Design the sequence.
């Protein structure tokens, strides 16, 4: 069949759909909709080969990027959306689609990866990139944990049982135009050391990133802790001295370990996360990994295991200081 014949039939515009279904963007889900087909076409064009590949779109919302994906004729499209208000418009798109569309309503973080892509997409690592793509315009607080989850799934052979996979993820992250978030984005590449290649997709499209897993990931647990730590340091503690987020990596009252970490990393404890270079974040992460190897059990103190345990206030109390710690004393 000619390529043109496979395009989506004419449909109401995304603006009309939003009006029709009264789909106000919800702040709590960091929703922000794209309306301009020329823009979404450009995003999808820059997200690599779609035609004939299996594609997963995370957070399709009212479906603007989805339309551009479908117009490029993927072999199959998997949609994962948390907000049930989008079900009618995504169902409508699925019905109009020339290719099979599988819509999953729910949080991508609890989505089961197995069977997401067809068995015939399975390749040996050495065979190069498989014909699968993952695309999303996601809030930044979702995208990093999501990348970790996917790498973990690959590392544990969950994506395709018995096969580790290469993976290309294209994420549009508006938030990273803010300079403070830039090191954080870069951190995914720098700290992971799990062969995640990261690149700005396109000069014209700031905020579109591609993450390619280039080699078989091994055990990535320490990296997972570090990813969330960087997240915490940059977002929750960015105005605090780096000593405070660093304390989260250790059991309570182990001030010496925090000092040792920052000394090993050659990072001044009084710096604030936003003042750290990507290299300095990387040094902290490498130093932490070394300490985990030297001290079996240290890694068990994950950020999640110690909620409230080492809150900044607790650290301050513990140190008998106010909010700031004077390391020059
Ligand atoms: N793709 C649409 C666009 O570009 O116009 C919507 C983008 S909006 C920034 C992000 C979308 O991701 C929203 O539809 C939101 O409901 C969805 N979302 C946010 N967190 C999610 C999660 N954990 N699982 C699945 N979808 C999520």
Sequence:
């Amino acid at each position: 069949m000619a390529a043109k014949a496979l395009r989506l039939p004419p449909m109401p515009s995304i603006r009309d759909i939003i009006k029709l279904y009264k789909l106000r963007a919800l702040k709590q889900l960091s929703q922000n909709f794209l309306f301009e087909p020329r823009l979404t076409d450009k995003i999808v064009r820059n997200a690599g080969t779609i035609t004939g590949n299996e594609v997963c779109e995370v957070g399709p919302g009212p479906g603007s990027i989805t339309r551009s994906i479908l117009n490029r004729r993927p072999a199959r499209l998997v949609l994962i959306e948390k907000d049930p208000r989008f079900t009618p418009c995504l169902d409508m798109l699925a019905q109009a689609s020339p290719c099979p569309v599988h819509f999953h309503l729910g949080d991508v973080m609890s989505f089961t990866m197995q069977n997401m892509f067809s068995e015939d997409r399975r390749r040996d690592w050495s065979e190069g990139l498989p014909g699968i793509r993952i695309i999303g315009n996601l809030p930044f607080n979702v995208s990093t944990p999501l990348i970790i989850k996917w790498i973990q799934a690959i590392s544990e052979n969950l994506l395709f049982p018995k096969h580790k996979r290469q993976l290309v993820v294209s994420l549009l992250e508006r938030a990273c135009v803010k300079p403070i978030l830039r090191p954080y984005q870069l951190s995914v590449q720098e700290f992971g050391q799990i062969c995640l290649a990261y690149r700005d997709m396109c000069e014209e499209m700031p905020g579109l990133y591609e993450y390619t897993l280039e080699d078989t990931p091994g055990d990535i647990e320490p990296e997972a802790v570090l990813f969330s730590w960087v997240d915490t340091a940059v977002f929750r503690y960015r105005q605090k001295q780096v000593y405070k987020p660093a304390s989260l990596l250790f059991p309570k009252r182990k001030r010496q370990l925090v000092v040792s970490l920052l000394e090993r990393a050659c990072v001044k404890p009084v710096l604030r996360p936003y003042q750290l270079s990507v290299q300095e974040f990387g040094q902290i992460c490498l130093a932490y990994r070394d300490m985990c190897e030297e001290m079996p059990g240290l890694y068990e103190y994950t950020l999640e295991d110690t909620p409230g345990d080492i809150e900044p206030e607790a650290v301050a109390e513990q140190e008998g200081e106010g909010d700031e710690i004077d390391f020059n004393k």
The radius of gyration is 22 Å. The CA atoms of residues 22 and 254 lie 53 Å apart. The beta strands are 54-58, 76-81, 101-105, 132-137, 167-172, 196-200, 208-213.
